[in-house]
Recover the amino acids of this structure.
């Protein structure tokens, strides 16, 4: 029950690993490389870096401040600061709910591909990977694997903040980095890899700095850093008071950028080495990459390792939005943590079944993705920035960022300035442009 002392993450490293776990996910692994490759390569990286600095980090800091200060779930946190702004917490909870409606399904695909790689059946099937994938999509298997993925997430979350989320992140994140590095090295030795590096890193400033690309980079920064969805509010409610949030936000962002770039350094050299065309999203991961692995010695092994990587990245993200909902149900409805996790799991399964069933012919995953990426994330992020610097007392953000005057004594000013005058305006501009 909520009377127990509130859980908290251990040291500095735990905080970074847990928050980076939320951030690093499908966004970094399968969306970033393609967007970058198609939109100016290394120059896009620069645009993305700027987006992270100007929009992502300030918005993350605003969420951190709200969560750590109040030590409550997303709704409770905003409400504790101001009743009138509690809708911001609901917007985060709604976002976490909607993302649950499609993210688990994709994560489930990678689980099936992992299993089929381990058993070898992915490579013994004579059918092409395209037809294997469409046969899989058309069957009932995706929903089974999706439910298994939700149950895996459930298991971790229901063990609690420290014994579940923190411990899992401390095991899974290092493993994820090791796999990334091993794969990047392996791919570097593939014949023709250079062409891939060239595609990914060739610099096209004109493309990268076009309005459309900048917008894409901002959207990617939001999604990838898990801001605007109550996640960072909820996670930071488990931070200790002396956590240096500016340094945490930088570390989390750096790791996310690093993984995004490493993903590109793995995918493109491999794709070009196999003489294939770069694609994105599901066709990249479930059709193009298996095609590449097939041509490599030890195909099943590399393929298993790769899909394990996707699973690790996805799982550390799914536990974060599961936790948003679990903390919400538990604290707002006075449920035990186990019951709250159970409710969250049931709701997640129902939503995934709805998306899978395409009831009334609606593509829910597109709808959910559109609403979260284009409405809830930008608006939630923007109003959180406005809230912490315009509505709250002047000292609020200063005290949070400096830990009551003991850290970041000058640096904090930069972020308060950005939160006041830069970040919300940019988000607003992007939001309007996106809708038109
Ligand atoms: N950042 C995660 C990813 O890139 C997705 C996510 C968004 C997770 C919002 C939680 C909240 O995959």
């Amino acid at each position: 029950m909520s009377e127990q002392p509130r859980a908290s993450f251990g040291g500095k490293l735990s905080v970074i690993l847990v928050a980076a776990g939320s951030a690093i996910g499908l966004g970094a692994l399968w969306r970033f490389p393609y967007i970058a490759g198609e939109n100016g390569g290394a120059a896009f990286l620069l645009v993305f870096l700027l987006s992270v600095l100007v929009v992502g980090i300030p918005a993350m800091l605003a969420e951190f401040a709200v969560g750590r200060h109040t030590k409550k779930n997303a709704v409770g946190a905003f409400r504790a600061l101001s009743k009138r702004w509690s809708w911001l917490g609901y917007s985060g909870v709604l976002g976490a709910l909607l993302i649950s409606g499609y993210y688990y399904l994709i994560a489930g695909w990678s689980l099936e591909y992992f299993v089929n790689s381990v058993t070898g059946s992915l490579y013994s099937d004579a059918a092409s990977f395209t037809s294997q994938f469409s046969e899989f999509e058309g069957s009932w298997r995706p929903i089974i694997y999706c439910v298994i993925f939700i149950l895996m997430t459930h298991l971790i979350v229901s063990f609690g903040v420290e014994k579940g989320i923190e411990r899992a992140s401390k095991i899974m994140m290092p493993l994820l980095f090791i796999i990334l590095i091993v794969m990047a090295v392996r791919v570097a030795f593939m014949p023709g890899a250079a062409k891939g590096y060239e595609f990914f890193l060739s610099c096209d400033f004109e493309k990268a700095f076009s309005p459309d690309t900048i917008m894409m980079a901002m959207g990617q920064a939001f999604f990838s850093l898990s801001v605007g969805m109550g996640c960072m509010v909820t996670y930071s409610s488990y931070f200790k008071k002396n956590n240096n949030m500016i340094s945490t936000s930088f570390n989390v962002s750096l790791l996310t950028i690093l993984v995004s770039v490493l993903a590109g350094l793995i995918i493109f050299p491999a794709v070009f080495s196999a003489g294939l065309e770069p694609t994105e999203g599901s066709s990249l991961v479930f059709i193009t990459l298996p095609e590449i692995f097939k041509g490599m010695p030890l195909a099943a092994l590399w393929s298993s390792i790769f899909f394990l990587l996707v699973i690790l990245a996805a799982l550390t993200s799914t536990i974060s939005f599961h936790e948003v909902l679990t903390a919400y149900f538990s604290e707002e409805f006075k449920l035990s943590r186990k019951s709250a996790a159970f409710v969250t799991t049931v709701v997640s399964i129902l939503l995934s079944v709805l998306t899978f069933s395409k009831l009334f012919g609606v593509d829910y995953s597109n709808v959910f993705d559109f609403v979260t990426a284009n409405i809830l994330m930008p608006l939630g992020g923007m109003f959180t920035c406005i809230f912490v610097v315009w509505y709250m007392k002047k000292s609020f953000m200063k005290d949070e960022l400096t830990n009551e005057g003991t850290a970041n004594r000058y640096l904090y000013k930069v972020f308060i300035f950005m939160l006041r005058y830069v970040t919300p305006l940019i988000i607003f501009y992007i939001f309007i442009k996106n809708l038109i």
Q: What stands out?
A: The pocket of phenylalanine is lined by residues 22-23, 25-28, 99, 223-224, 226, 229, 231, 317, 320-321 (CB under 6 Å). The chain has a mean pLDDT of 92. The chain has one domain: 12-435. The first helix runs from residue 12 to 23.
